[in-house]
């Protein structure tokens, strides 16, 4: 799967999970609520490339500058 497909799948799963929670709390109006609210994540809490580089700067890499899965 490509990154775009994975991101779309994640968004769909998140939307479905949120819809299920709303249906429990609000009943049939949960579907109307989910269609009218924005599900975009706020930029203030999203990691940028610089943040990630800062987080992994002390990790060792191999010859090809790859990280160990367990380290990440």
Pick out its properties.
single chain, 72 residues, mainly alpha, 56% helix
Short structural description:
It is built from three helices and no strands. By secondary structure, the chain is an all-alpha fold.
Secondary structure elements and pairings:
Layout lengths: L2 H24 L2 H8 L12 H8 L16
Can you tell me about this structure?
This protein is mainly α. It has one domain. 56% of the residues lie in helices and 0% in strands. It has three helices and no strands. It has helices spanning 3-26, 29-36, 49-56. α1 packs antiparallel against α2. The protein is elongated.
Low-confidence spans: none
Q: Please trace the helix and strand order, writing H or E for each element.
A: HHH
What's the number of extended β-strand segments? 0
Count helical runs: 3
Oligomer: single chain
Residue share in β-strands = under 5%
Helix-and-strand structural type: mainly alpha
What is the residue-mean pLDDT, rounded to a whole number? 84
**Straight-line distance between termini:** 21 Å
Please give the share of residues in helix.
55-70%
Assign an overall shape.
elongated
């Amino acid at each position: 799967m490509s990154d775009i497909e994975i991101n779309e799948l994640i968004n769909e799963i998140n939307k479905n999970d949120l819809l299920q929670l709303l249906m429990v709390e609000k009943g049939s109006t949960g579907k109307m609520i989910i269609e009218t609210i924005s599900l975009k994540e706020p930029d203030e809490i999203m990691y940028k490339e610089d943040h990630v580089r800062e987080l992994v700067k002390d990790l060792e890499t191999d010859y090809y500058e790859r990280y160990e899965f367990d380290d990440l």
